[in-house]
Amino acid sequence: MLNFKLTLFIIKNKFIISLMEELLEKIKTLPEEYKKIFDRIYEVEIEEAIQYFPENLKEKFKDAGKQKIVVIKNKLLNQESYFNVWRGKREEPRKEKTLEQIFYDPFCEPLKNTPYDDLGRLENEKAITASNLAKISKEHSLIIFKEHNKEKINKEDIEKALELSFEWFEKKNKRVRVLIWNFGFRGGASIIHPHFQVFSFDSLPLKIELIFKKVIEYKKNYNSDYFEDIFKLYKSLELALEKNKLKAFVNLTPFKDHEIIILFEDFKSSIKELSQLLKEYKSLIENFNLLICDSEEIKLGFLVDRGSSSKLNSDIGALEIYAFSVVSFDPLEFAKELFTKFH
Questions:
Q1: Count of CB atoms situated within 10 Å of the CB of 145
Q2: Domain 89-343 classified CATH 3.40.47.40?
Q3: Which residues have a Cβ under 8 Å from the Cβ of 282 and sit 6 or more positions away?
Q4: What is the DSSP letter of 89?
Q5: Confidence (pTM)
Q6: pLDDT tens digit string along 118-150?
Q7: What is the spatial distance between Cα 194 and Cα 99, in angstroms, rounded to a whole number?
Q8: Relative orientation angle of helices 271-284 and 155-172, to the nearest 10 degrees
Q9: Which of 80, 116, 118, 311 is the most buried (most CB within 10 A)?
């Protein structure tokens, strides 16, 4: 997220910014006939994200203090995209780089090498906060593990990082709280040093909102709670785990291999169990994605395998992007392997 080539960025970015401004202007000046169609289907929001830098980074990243984020939503299809040209400037691992360059790690000295948000720094014995240099949305920060080696991350590290996430969410005080963990390069991490990304939103992401609407529809049609029903079903199939206020099951319609759906009543009181689940999952899976959504409407999580680090091919192809998922694991076998670790 730091140490990218500024010259190339400035040339490239000015071009992209002008394109984005031009597109927004075109949308504004659509003929009335097309404007009606656009407004019926789409919604455009523009946010300004602000962050602060330690003294040694102020000059280098003077243009990154304020970032414009354009959000375009397709209300009919529940699709949304967040445009921020700073995302293209991140230092990412590339094949032609040396090992030393690939493992460049600003997160080992976050006070010196990372910006911070309007809350300043929050910290406990295992984690510290930072602003995300290239923001996806206005309220987008990082929870950086103090342990550098991802293989050494244990339950306590995860638990304390989740606790710090909760503290950040509480201070932001927004309706929707989203936490993600891109673990490993194949999981989409641009820096290998373990870190969560945390977001505070005023409304649900549209894909999550669609699930919520389907749950409401299910309640109306069957006078029953969808998540309670599906959890009972998965439990009867020996695909589910319940521990205190946390429920988890191996999904029978996964996006990719080894997908776990997580249900919880309260984020804070589920941290211990969630930490154990993540620790055990990490012991079996090399690269993964975690997303937790905590809101009044819905409390839901997803955990999915992104494949072995030794593989050269992507785990996602045209079918996954546009049609349906293709997977290659036995759900019951995986449920037994993962859930028997819980006592």
A1: 23
A2: no
A3: 153, 183, 288
A4: G
A5: 0.83
A6: 999 999 999 999 998 888 888 999 999 999 999
A7: 18
A8: 130
A9: 116
